[in-house]
Write a structure and sequence with these properties.
single chain; alpha+beta; Glutaredoxin; 8-stranded mixed sheet; 3-stranded antiparallel sheet; 10 helices; 14% strand; binds glutathione
Length: 348
C-alpha cells in the first residue's frame, strides 16, 4: 500500500483545495469508470468489454486515477454473502433499517416489475432467469439534479443525521460527506467554522449557495429542491420519525460516533452505497470513525445509477469504493473495512 499523508492538520489538504478539486464534472473524484477490471474467473468476457467502452467515454477524467485499465485487483464480489466475522455487524445493521421501516432503501416513486428479458440484454436487473427479469425504476430521473455534489457534515451515530442520509438516498443525490465523529480533528472544527456551531447534520449546497442546520429543514429543502416537494411520511417531522430514528441507533451501539483515525485521506474516497443497505452501513461507520471524506454515489433500489455502476464494472454490488489516494478499488464490505483500517487507522 502506498503511504498516505500523516494525520495532522498541516498534512491534510485544506478544505478549500478539496472543494476546488470537486468543482466541475471533469474534476470530480474519479468514478469507477477508471477502475478497470480485467477478466476474472467470475466474469471474464463481459467485464473486458465493459471496461473498454468506459475507458473511451471517460478518457479525460484521469485525476486521481487508481486502477490501471484492464485491472481489478480487489476481492471477488459475492452478492448478499456475509463474510465470517461480519455476521453480527451486518445483521444488527439490517435491524436498523427494519426499525426505520425500510426508509432509505428505495428511491422515490420506486416500482418493480417482472418483464421478459430483451434479446441480448446486458445491464443490471435485480434478478433474472428463464427469460424473465425483475426491473426496478423510480421517479428520480424526473427530478432536478444538482450539478455539483451536495456537502454534508455529519456522523453515523446521530439519529438526525440518519434522517438526512435517508433523504439523500431516497432522492438519489450524490453527496460529499465530511465525517464529524466526536473528537474528530478536521471536519468537526470546519463545520463550526462554517456554520457557527457544532450541530449535525450541517448541509452546504454549492449549487444554490444555501447552507443550513436542522434535519427537518434540510429534508424539506432537499425534497423541494431535488424532489417533487413531497417529504415521505417516514421522514416527516413526527413522533414516529423521531422515535424510530432514535431506536434505530441502538443495534449498532454507538458505531460511527467516535474518532478513531490515524492518517488523513487527502482526497475523498468515492463510495457507492445507500442508507438502507446493511453492508454499506458498516463501511460508512468505518469511514466516519476514520474521518475519511467520501463522495457517496447514492444508489438505493430503483436508482438509475445502478446501470451506471454495472456499465463501469460489469456488475452491480455495493458497497464499492475507489480510493484515489492509493489507487485501490474494491467490492466486499469486510475487505473494505480491513483496508480502510490498515490504511487510515491508528495503527496504519
Ligand atoms: N458480500 C458483499 C455483499 C454486498 C451486497 O450483497 N450488497 C447488496 C446491497 S444490500 C447488493 O449489492 N445487492 C445487489 C442488488 O441489489 O442487486 C459485501 O459484504 O459487501
Amino acid at each position: 500500500m502506498k503511504p498516505v499523508a500523516a494525520h495532522s492538520r498541516a498534512a491534510r489538504a485544506p478544505l478549500a483545495t478539496l472543494a476546488g478539486r470537486l468543482v466541475g464534472p471533469e474534476a470530480l473524484p474519479r468514478g469507477p469508470g477508471q477502475a478497470m477490471i480485467a477478466g476474472r474467473d467470475w466474469d471474464r468476457p463481459r467485464l473486458g468489454r465493459t471496461v473498454r467502452g468506459v475507458a473511451t467515454r471517460r478518457a479525460t477524467a484521469t485525476e486521481g486515477s487508481t486502477t490501471k485499465e484492464g485491472e481489478y485487483n480487489g476481492p471477488e464480489p459475492k452478492r448478499f454473502a456475509i463474510a465470517e466475522g461480519n455476521r453480527v455487524a451486518v445483521l444488527t445493521a439490517a435491524v436498523t433499517t427494519i426499525m426505520r421501516f425500510g426508509s432509505g432503501a428505495l428511491t422515490k416513486g420506486y416500482k418493480a416489475s417482472i418483464d421478459k428479458t430483451p434479446e441480448g440484454f446486458s445491464g443490471y436487473a435485480f434478478v433474472s432467469g428463464n427469460g424473465r427479469q425483475v426491473n426496478e425504476s423510480s421517479k428520480v430521473a424526473e427530478f432536478p439534479r444538482p450539478n455539483q455534489p451536495l456537502e454534508i457534515y455529519e456522523f453515523e451515530g446521530c439519529p438526525f443525521c440518519r434522517k438526512a442520509r435517508e433523504a439523500v438516498s431516497i432522492l438519489d443525490l450524490d453527496v460529499l460527506f465530511y465525517p464529524c465523529p466526536k473528537g474528530g480533528t478536521t471536519y468537526r472544527p470546519k463545520a463550526v467554522e462554517l456554520g457557527g456551531k457544532a450541530q449535525f447534520p450541517y448541509l452546504v449546497d454549492p449549487n444554490t449557495g444555501v447552507s443550513m442546520y436542522e434535519s427537518d429543514d434540510i429534508i424539506k429543502y432537499l425534497f423541494d429542491t431535488y424532489g417533487d416537494g413531497e417529504v415521505p411520511f417516514l421522514l416527516s417531522p413526527s413522533f414516529l420519525t423521531a422515535v424510530s430514528c432514535g431506536l434505530a441507533m441502538l443495534p449498532r451501539a454507538g458505531k460511527g460516533t467516535t474518532f478513531a483515525g490515524g492518517k488523513a485521506a487527502v482526497k475523498p474516497i468515492v463510495y457507492w452505497g445507500y442508507e438502507g443497505s446493511p453492508f454499506c452501513k458498516i463501511v460508512r461507520e468505518t469511514l466516519v470513525e476514520l474521518e475519511i471524506p467520501h463522495l457517496q454515489k447514492s444508489c438505493a433500489r430503483g436508482s438509475p445509477k445502478r446501470q451506471e455502476l454495472y456499465k463501469y464494472m460489469g456488475l452491480f454490488q455495493v458497497p464499492f469504493i475507489e480510493d484515489p489516494n492509493t489507487g485501490v478499488s474494491m467490492f466486499e464490505s469486510a475487505e473494505i473495512i480491513k483496508y480502510l483500517r490498515e490504511t487510515y487507522g491508528a495503527q496504519a
